[in-house]
Amino acid sequence: MCKSNRAPGRVHPATPVTGVLLALLLVIGSADASRFGRSGFSGNPDTNGGSVCGVCHAPGQAQAPFVTFIGPTVVEAGTTVNYRILIVGGPAVSAGINVSVSGGVGTLAPVDVNLQLVEGELAHVKPQPFDGAPFLAFNFEWTAPNYDVDLVFYAAANSTDGNLDLGNDGVTATTLAVTVVNGFEDPPPPPPPPDPSPIALEAIATGFSLPVVLTNAGDARLFVVEQVGRVRVIDEGGNVLPQPFLDISSRVKLGFSEEGMLGLAFHPDYAQNGYFYVNYIFDPGPNQDRTRISRFKVSADSNVADAGSELVLMEFAQPFDNHNGGDMHFGPDGYLYISSGDGGSGGDPQDLAQNPHRLLGKLLRIDVDTTPGPDNGPDCAENGGSDYAIPPRNAYVDGQGGEGCDEIFALGVRNPWRISFDRLTGDLWVADVGQNAIEEVSFIPAGSAGGLNLGWRCFEGTQPFDLGDCNLSYLDPVFDYSHADGNCSVTGGFVYRGADYPELQGQYFFSDFCNPAIRTLSGPINDPVETEVLPAGGVLFSTFGEDQRGELYGADFNEGTIYRIVGAAPPGLPGDVDGDGDVDFIDVLRVFRAVGEPASGPDDPRDLNGDGQITRIDVLLVFRNCTRPGCEVG
Q1: pLDDT tens string 318-352
Q2: Where are the beta strands (DSSP E) in 478-528?
Q3: Is-cis flag, bond preceding 251, omega within 30?
Q4: Which of 99, 323, 337, 453 has the most C-beta neighbours closer than 10 Å?
Q5: Hey, which CATH number is domain 30-181, 3.40.50.620, 3.90.1150.10, 2.60.40.680, 3.90.1640.30?
Q6: Interhelix angle for 616-624 vs 585-593, to 10°?
Q7: What is the distance of C-alpha 469 from the center of its chain?
Q8: pLDDT by residue (tens digit) across 503-550?
Q9: Where in the chain is the domain with CATH 2.120.10.30?
Q10: 258 close to 323: Cβ distance less than 8 angstroms
């Protein structure tokens, strides 16, 4: 994947990087996940941990359909045979499928025009109508390999109610075991083992339901937001406390995969005032969904919040069920930043992200510590409160009824999932989910004034999307990537600023929900280098988070497991400069004395991070790899 060419007439930040850098389809343009079939959700354990269509389609009270393959289970090598998938029942207004083969063996091909080949798998072009029939069929063919093999076909199907909101849809997966016989070639050799990854995952806790936020309160604990409306605590000993820190699930709407509790931020002075803030979807009545930003307070028990302390700061209407954004962080300026999606559906049909009089499709910024005056109070909140002030350098600071909503810091985002501040530099990173083609990561330098426009819906990434009335300057993403290779929905992370793994210092970590390899961006901000640091496996990252020390974590949405991201030690004994079989004080001393010198070559044992220079980072790495207690002289 590579960054697209920049579009003319857009603003390109040139600030250098100062370090070495749901139900999710929480974040996918989910109405369009139904409109355009996707790969990777057939139930095949080789892709996305065996996920099925239920990642996007929320079943609600819908009955699951019956799904079956029709076709041979024994196939002659090298021949092409026809298969049919039948879908019966469920809401039975329309249906779609995803089909794959274990190991990608053989060649799938659509027979019907309502199927397409996507990354070697089959998916519907658009949902097909039942038209009153008792069943729906999808036809395809498969060409067997020229060698004997046992394999499995996987299929996941959704039977929908005909609405593109993906709610109340039935989902079922099925398999078909197939044996290929009378082969006339040897099977291909197994692929070589992958190169060692520079990071690894260390499971620290499990048992969470739909984790979507990981954060800390300035102490050794981790807090995990469960989308249903609970906040759970992992204590300093790594134990998951049985009692939730906060449970407001009765107030939270989770009728659809992108709704629920979506954000949590602790006040910078939480240790003194006990305040924290949550972002969730609230349903005051039919077709009246709202985003709600509320403040709560901890109780006398530091591991339990006072659920009755809610102070609603802000509400604004959501016209559709999807694209709710929801992330929140306090910036280095002490203000609360809130990410807001464009209101949903697909393609931003009401052009809300570019509308300065709506809070949708924006990055918002409010001052929760200042009592508002007549000229700096809430502008576009729909709950009528007066419990926050407007920072003086927001995009609009002209009071109610002015040129735009005073809460707006930046415009033109689609569905930011997630945003984060670099704890060292204060720079703001924004990962914004694309429509059907491009995912993007934007960078806002620390200290930037409000008013930047990130471009949606005029642009998707750096590519034009809908240029009607688009005559402004737009901030280019520093990185974007296409939906090739099975990508579909960026999951933003953080810049690593921990101390345990100096070799990761300054790298921005992120992933993608449909191709969940962990990747990093590093190097100059105007031309960052993308690196895959952990291949896609069975973990579907819904979010990343930092602990108090800046160490990074990721949450597996499907399995409810929290992982710590750790540096993976290279093979051998890195740091054994003198070659005596261990790493001791003599090795540390030799690296320390060489600081500032160039490495003698790619195999110089003193250059532990391989950057061609002997630096203090190499000294830190030797200390970390020391094999003797206290790094004593050995």
Answers
A1: 999 899 999 999 999 999 999 999 999 889 999 99
A2: 479-482, 490-495, 508-512, 518-522
A3: no
A4: 323
A5: 2.60.40.680
A6: 170
A7: 31
A8: 899 999 999 998 899 999 999 999 999 999 999 887 989 999 999 999
A9: 208-254+260-320+322-482
A10: yes
